[in-house]
Amino acid sequence: MNIFRPLSLAAALALVAGAALVLGQGGIKPVTIGQPMPAFALPVLQGGTFEMAGHKGRNVMLVFPRGFAAEGRWCTIDNYKYAEIVDLDRTAGVRAKYDLDVVFVFPYARDLVAKWVDDNPDQLAKIRDWKNPADPSKLDDAGKARMQRWRASYPKDFAMEKGKVPLPFPILIDADRAVSKGLGLFATEWGGSKVDQNMTSVFIVDKEGILRFKYIGQSTVDRPEYDVLLKELDRLGK
């Protein structure tokens, strides 16, 4: 659930603009497993505010996608991983099973975050085209190697309808990058490109607000599979 507290006019305007509201003392800093997750609030693309402290009693998976892979070009892995967790929740009910809130955090202003959502169908179609070229027999050796690599990287087929991208999870707007920078995730040069982006990361916070799992990718393809993350959630339930 979201927690709404009376805010000053300045704080309310900051959240509307997509700026983080830091609720703990000392600001947001990198957190170590076993420590409390820093308290913050961010506006949600779908409306309202996400407040970290308001989710005690539920496990929280904070996903920090890369966003841009280059100027004007989204990282397709993000779109695939988003579609994958949407499908996993639809078919296996992971949120209900693990008392889990899944949250995506983007280091961009609202208009860019909305564009990322709207572009998901095109990104998924691009992946399908990479995997299934019109005539694979005409590919040279390098082209065939790329096709096989894409098929291995994106083994499932997902499709979304333009204008009807499912939004079962809060999509947070970290426009001033206070959360992303505070946690040490924001970078302007990473993964071989110079662009405003986050290092792909996943944090799992338990029902008491303690960080229990942290994964920061060393490259754009270095991401935990969801079966690994679900095993971590299994441990929290024992």
Give structural notes:
With 238 residues, the protein is α+β, with helices and mostly antiparallel strands. It has a single domain (37-128, 162-236), classed as Glutaredoxin (3-Layer(aba) Sandwich). The protein has helices at 9-17, 76-92, 94-97, 110-118, 120-131, 141-153, 178-182, 226-236, and strands at 21-22, 40-43, 49-51, 59-64, 68-70, 73-74, 100-106, 171-173, 186-190, 193-198, 201-205, 211-216. Strands 8-7-4-11-12 form a five-stranded mixed β-sheet. β9 (186-190) and β10 (193-198) form a beta hairpin. α2 (76-92) packs across α5 (120-131). It is globular, with a radius of gyration of 18 Å. The model is unreliable at 1-6 (pLDDT under 50).
Topology at a glance:
Elements: H1 9-17, E1 21-22, E2 40-43, E3 49-51, E4 59-64, E5 68-70, E6 73-74, H2 76-92, H3 94-97, E7 100-106, H4 110-118, H5 120-131, H6 141-153, E8 171-173, H7 178-182, E9 186-190, E10 193-198, E11 201-205, E12 211-216, H8 226-236
Parallel strand pairs: 4-7, 7-8
Antiparallel strand pairs: 1-2, 2-3, 4-11, 5-6, 9-10, 11-12
Helix pairs in contact: 2-5
